[in-house]
Design goal:
Elements lengths: L1 H14 L27 H11 L11 H11 L6 H10 L4 H8 L13 E6 L2 H5 L2 H12 L12 E6 L11 E3 L3 E4 L3 H12 L7 E2 L20 H5 L2 H19 L1
Parallel strand pairs: 1-2, 4-5
Antiparallel strand pairs: 1-3, 3-4
Helix pairs in contact: 2-3, 3-4, 4-5, 7-8
Bound molecules: FE2/S2 (inorganic) cluster.
The site of FE2/S2 (inorganic) cluster has 11 residues, from helix 6.
């Protein structure tokens, strides 16, 4: 049974057309995505921007580029416009081209408009073997969209991405770069979309009742968790470190 399933899904993978990178990562000049399209960070976003920048020395402001791009994208309904990238360049004192280079490298940055729920479905081998294609087909049918398209009501967009790092709970999808939903079937995938459409918030993580990544036999290792790990008094540890450091310095004199 398992070998038949593997053979069927592996054949599907072999026959699948060659994939290119998601169309959402490409910039297109559209009326809502031009150099003159207004973009300004909100006060709330500025607080986050400054917080990220405070992690780096003044002469390394550009090190905050990726998190600041995320702040811009999130503020703008998950859409990183040209003017948003230019604003990031200005705030971080970078050349706009340097910011475009970063944004265009990662599929997490959407440089064209996406749906309110931007679904990135994992299409790498473990997810494919476990039925990713069927789940993606179910999304396309329910939302009436193709790959890299937005539904007519603006609620859903779909793209296929590479491994999202939860292969043991394959197949899985990620929404808006933030939340993941695992152990999917076509039916549970459509249930997710129905819940979002109804304004609800589905349970995150595995959709089959599994706890985290536990196998069918439940927990088979790490039965005893050391209390010490949880009860460490970090203030006391730091105090001891400082005292030891001072004692070592005094001994050197
Ligand atoms: S292959 Fe899908 S999460 Fe790794």
């Amino acid at each position: 049974m398992l070998s038949r399933l593997l053979r069927k899904n592996t054949m599907q993978m072999i026959k699948a057309p060659a994939r290119s990178m998601s169309a959402f990562v490409n910039h297109r000049d559209t009326p809502d995505n031009l150099e003159e399209t207004p973009f300004e960070f909100t006060e709330e976003s500025y607080v986050q921007v400054k917080s990220w920048m405070s992690n780096f020395p003044d002469n390394y402001k550009h090190s905050a580029c990726i998190p600041v791009l995320f702040v811009a994208q999130k503020q703008n309904n998950n859409f990183l416009t040209l003017s948003a990238m230019n604003k990031v360049a200005k705030v971080l004192e970078m050349e706009p081209m340097q910011v475009y280079e970063v944004a265009s490298f990662y599929t997490m940055f959407n440089r064209t408009r996406v749906g309110k729920y931007h679904i990135q479905f994992c299409g790498t081998t473990p997810c494919m073997i476990r039925g990713a294609n069927e789940c993606m087909d179910a999304i396309k049918e329910y939302a009436n969209i193709g790959m890299d398209e937005i539904s007519a009501d603006g609620l859903f967009s779909l793209s296929e991405v590479e491994c999202l790092g939860a292969c043991v709970n394959a197949p899985m999808l990620q929404v808006n770069n933030e939340w993941v939903y695992e152990d999917l079937t076509p039916e549970t995938t459509v249930e997710l979309l129905k819940t979002w459409k109804a304004g609800g918030e589905p349970h995150k993580g595995p959709q089959n009742g599994r706890i985290n990544s536990l196998g069918p036999e439940g927990r088979t290792s790490l039965h005893v968790i050391s209390e010490d790990l949880h009860d460490r008094d970090f203030a006391a540890v730091k105090e001891k470190y400082e005292a030891d450091k001072a004692a070592a310095a005094a001994a050197k004199k």
